[in-house]
Amino acid sequence: MDQIAYVNGSFVPLAEAKVSILDRGFLFADGIYEVAAVLDGRLVDNASHLARLKRSVGEISLALPETLERIAEIQKELVARNQLVNGMIYLEVTRGADKGRDFAFPKGTTPTLIMFTTVKDIVNAPSAKAGIGVITVPDIRWSRRDIKSVALLAQVLAKQAAAEAGAGEAWMIEDGKVTEGGSSSAFILTRDDVLVTRQNGSEILPGCTRKAVVALAEERQLRVEERAFSVEEALAAKEAFITSATLFVQPVISIDGKTIANGKPGPMTNRLREIYVDFARATAV
Ligand code: PLP
Questions:
Q1: Same domain, 40 and 146
Q2: Is the pTM of this model over 0.85?
């Protein structure tokens, strides 16, 4: 079956899904994206992703071409048309295609909205059992990382460096502290069982999975501190993990080749992963 994509009001075969070379997403990275997991054919935590989409487009004064309700309908229709059971749905909205390449916002252009799906068995991913190593890289991104912008070159370079080092993710470092992963939020569990993850602010993307995991942990009386932590603190921790929509909770077992605790996924991480999977199944729509 041909993969179907959505482009500006039409469902078309992926190979025919095209936008203009003058699209501002292509020319200026003038756009916002979202990724939600699909589990058993349903969208995980999608209200949270759509709320972040609304906030991100608002921060760059980009009007969505459809209502959030309609976007959710299109997402569901695309999942159904692709008969997607487990995987993810990507959506991107850009400021559209102008007649040339002027930096200032064009007048009268319609924003571009595209979506496509990818198959992935998130629940049974082998790396969730084995854990991953991370490397550290300087955080060279701009200072509005709270906006889910498609300008991801710093993360492309960070994740390429991780791939070349045989690591699963890059943790980005600023002022001696971990900001977040290239495409994930970073957590540690300290020796006295406090779950630590950096506080939201313009230094990091407010992860939807991060938010859910913090709430689920607090509901279970786990102490959570939202603050920055250093690599030294992470190496001295009991456990570490990352979260994202397409990984859920994934154990981190080493940093720059140095193991954390016994170098195996920690019991609390595994428990939080199970709890998150249950939450995802129970709340998917
Ligand atoms: N931080 C960054 C920089 C990301 O790119 C992502 C996801 O792509 C995340 C965190 C995790 O966010 P979420 O849990 O909403 O997928």
A1: no
A2: yes
CA of 108 relative to ligand 1 center, distance in Å: 32
* H or E segment to which residue 37 belongs: strand 31-39
In the structure encoding, which two tokens stand for residue 20, read together? Answer: 């203009």
Active-site annotation, residues:
148
Same domain, 95 and 12: yes
Distances (CA, A) of 255 to 3, 127, 155, 283: 38, 15, 17, 33
How many domains in the chain? 2
Cα of 184 vs centre of ligand 1, distance in Å, is: 4
Smallest CA separation from ligand 1 atom 3, residue? 183
Task: Report the C-alpha gap between 92 and 108 in whole angstroms.
Answer: 19
What sign for the dihedral angle of Cα 155, 196, 59, 49? Answer: positive
CATH number at residue 148: 3.20.10.10
- pLDDT, averaged in runs of 10, over the chain (285 residues): 95 98 98 98 98 98 98 98 98 97 96 98 96 98 98 98 98 98 98 98 98 98 98 98 98 98 98 98 96
Closest ligand 1 atom, residue 180 Cα: 1
